[in-house]
């Protein structure tokens, strides 16, 4: 059995191809039904968003599975298999699981850390679960995937550090004046950069937006009714009322002088003003920075903020990668435990059977025992069995998780003469060729683990 | 103290280089420090012959404990981030101070203890509010420095905006100002009832009135928006230093002569 993912995303395919491959709600039902009826595919889930189409599956053969999914996508998109193959990726085992977790965390999104993808992943899982395409393994896997995605959202701030210039400018202004909802902003210049700033400020819900431009009519045409428009000569009049100034004109010389700001600050009564100069050459006189309540920044400063956001995002991404590693290990442990559980159950029932036989023999040989004495004997013989098995059971669980496979479990089964999954034990024994029975027995009885836990074979 | 110090070191390390384990360890250690301080306070208060006979050391410790408790509770529900660090730096400083102020001036006898109790509670709450005001002013100074010097580091990203810090500092100081006024009024009333005269002329009252007047100046300046943000914050920090000096260096009411 192999866990694989075959898909395409914004990183591997153009939007034209992605929209052709993308599955609509109705098409998705058909695809899931098709996957359900395929012998190669044991469990499956399809994630289809505007930026990615991915098929996660548990398959009996990687090659057959890959070929089947590529064919499926090609038929759906109405293009050749080779074209699809060129723009798809295939990951298997640990890489596939980690990829699912990265996707759910928003690390693989166009906007890093966006949160919508987690909901889309949850919907995809719910859909696959409802139509019966997921089984025990994928139910567990995607529970782990969604858990990691949720942790990434709640425990990190990866989505809060955009690296766009407009975001950095608004972030910088907000650090001075606080939230923008009840603030006033003045944008000087209605060119390309100015219009971008106007739209961004409007999107941030700025309380009042004023645009100063050389040509009032041109500005009105460019921005519509997003802001009040005034001529450049009105800047001294509006300056005392504004908390944030964005300037992006192409004019030579300073559009905002020290005197204008000094006069406005006197009227503002010690309320700070954030001034962001997006123009080159600069519009805002740098000498204004020396005024007590004025905070002036230029494009180089915005680069500094973007750089800080980038570093922060990297830090947060590292934290998420650690969560992903934990998630993969947790899933691996669960897989291993599933192999050990029947063995433990068999061992327990064997122990109980022996205890019952011993008790029966004792009762034959000591027929005059009272009911109370029988109860005491029963309790104590059961206690012997439990105490004898407790540590080996605990150790076999830990060793199986540490080794990532059922090697120790199979040796354990042999040692105790249990016939659980004979065929599995045989394959596992060959993997244990490097270990002597004495060494393994020693470990089973409680020696310290010397190496890091390994992943289950399904994930290797 | 060791847990407290180590926790603050870890919190600092978490700001510089965030790691979840470090952060968790810091919060756990902060909780250990809280439990230890709670036990210490209980032990100290249990030894008092009557409640108001606390020492300056007890009071400082109580203020630090209260700050620690508030930050732990707030951080649990609202993730207040760097406020935890800054508030506990101040709290730790007060705890250290409390360690060096072990002298006790227990009252042998207190009439009208209930009035005195209310006075003490109000005064303590005002000092706690001033301590938080100081924390926000300190954070404002750090963030203002970042913004002035164009230092866009983790501190810049983590610290709240100047406007928010200014608002919080104003609220804390106004609250402390009001509580201190009530505490002084009740203190005077107690003196009138117990000592049969006003104590406006006592050194403690004069210095307390002075610190109260200093805060009044800050509040007037801030409300009328006179002076710069930086200057006002620095002044507010000086006000808190004056409060601490008043708390530890000026003779407390325990030394007033009480006539049975």
How many distinct domains of chain B? 2
Given the structure, what is the number of helices of chain B?
Answer: 9
CATH topology of the largest domain in chain A: Beta Polymerase, domain 2
Strand content of chain B: under 5%
Sequence-ordered SSE layout with sheet pairings:
The complex is a heterodimer of chains A (460) and B (260).
Chain A (H helix, E strand, L loop, with lengths): L1 E8 L5 H7 L3 H12 L4 E8 L3 E8 L2 H16 L3 H6 L2 E4 L1 H12 L10 H15 L5 H20 L9 H13 L6 E5 L3 H12 L4 E6 L2 H8 L4 E4 L3 H4 L5 E4 L10 H11 L4 E5 L16 E4 L1 H67 L5 H33 L3 H9 L6 H10 L5 H8 L16
Parallel strand pairs in A: 5-6, 5-8, 6-7, 8-9, 9-10
Antiparallel strand pairs in A: 1-3, 1-4, 2-3
Chain B lengths: L1 H15 L3 H28 L8 H23 L3 H18 L13 H36 L5 H5 L3 H33 L8 H21 L5 H21 L11
Helix pairs in contact in B: 1-2, 1-4, 2-3, 3-4, 3-5, 4-5, 5-7, 5-9, 7-8, 8-9
Describe this entry's structure for a reader.
The complex is a heterodimer of chains A (460) and B (260). Chain A has 460 residues and is α/β, with parallel strands linked by helices. Chain A has 3 domains: 154 residues, Beta Polymerase, domain 2, CATH 3.30.460.30; 133 residues, NAD(P)-binding Rossmann-like Domain (Rossmann fold, 3-Layer(aba) Sandwich), CATH 3.40.50; 139 residues, no CATH class. In chain A, 57% of the residues lie in helices and 12% in strands. Chain A is built from 17 helices and 10 strands. In chain A, the strands form 2 sheets. In chain A, strands 7-6-5-8-9-10 form a 6-stranded parallel sheet. Chain A has a 4-stranded antiparallel sheet with strand order 2-3-1-4, sandwiched between helices. The relative contact order of chain A is 0.08. Chain B has 260 residues and is mainly alpha-helical. Chain B folds into 2 domains: 108 residues; 150 residues, no CATH class. In chain B, 77% of the residues lie in helices and 0% in strands. Chain B contains 9 helices and no strands.
